[in-house]
Write a structure and sequence with these properties.
It is built from 7 helices and no strands. With about 160 residues, the chain is mainly alpha-helical. The protein has a domain of about 120 residues: Four Helix Bundle (Hemerythrin (Met), subunit A) (Up-down Bundle), CATH 1.20.120. It is elongated. The N terminus is likely disordered.
């Protein structure tokens, strides 16, 4: 096989390299500063609406938990749906100034990811996590939540540790 003609992937890499050498081209003729300013503005707008759409995610998660409690034969399927939502919430919280949301969602993901028996103890602990998330978002508790946040996060983590190890 003749290797003299560049492959499409190699051409793409060369174009990417050229854009790095000339940043104005990489940002469609706008400066990097302008692009960063637009990104910061978009992030600010997202942060302003974060608690609203995070609460919607928590409500979806609540429906999954309610379905798990009401349908024990399919509880694991419903809890996997809750896990998927909480995994996203976990990733978003700290990005928008709510690291306590991330901490609580991470603890809930540990509980759900353990694939422990989805019985009453697990469901009660999962509900406690959702209640905590609702409180943090309704009260707009930004940052780690101070002493209350530390106690809340610590207690939920302890419950998970005691149940699933």
């Amino acid at each position: 096989m003749n290797q003299t003609a560049p492959r499409p992937a190699a051409l793409a890499a060369l174009r990417d390299f050229d854009e790095l050498r000339n940043p104005e081209d990489a940002f469609n003729g706008t400066s990097m500063a302008d692009t960063l300013a637009r990104a910061e503005e978009a992030t600010t707008l997202l942060k302003q609406n974060y608690t609203s759409w995070a609460r919607e995610d928590i409500e979806k998660g609540q429906r999954h938990l309610d379905d798990a409690a009401g349908d024990p034969a399919r509880a694991r399927i419903h809890l996997d749906g809750l896990y998927a939502i909480m995994h996203n919430v976990k990733g978003q919280g700290a990005s928008f100034g709510y690291p306590l949301v991330t901490r609580v969602a991470q603890s809930l993901c540990k509980l759900l990811g353990a694939k422990h028996d989805p019985g009453e103890p697990m469901l009660r602990i999962a509900q406690a996590h959702l209640d905590a998330l609702k409180l943090v978002l309704e009260q707009k508790i930004e940052g780690p939540g101070g002493e209350t946040g530390e106690k809340l996060g610590g207690r939920l983590e302890t419950l998970v540790q005691e149940l699933v190890g």
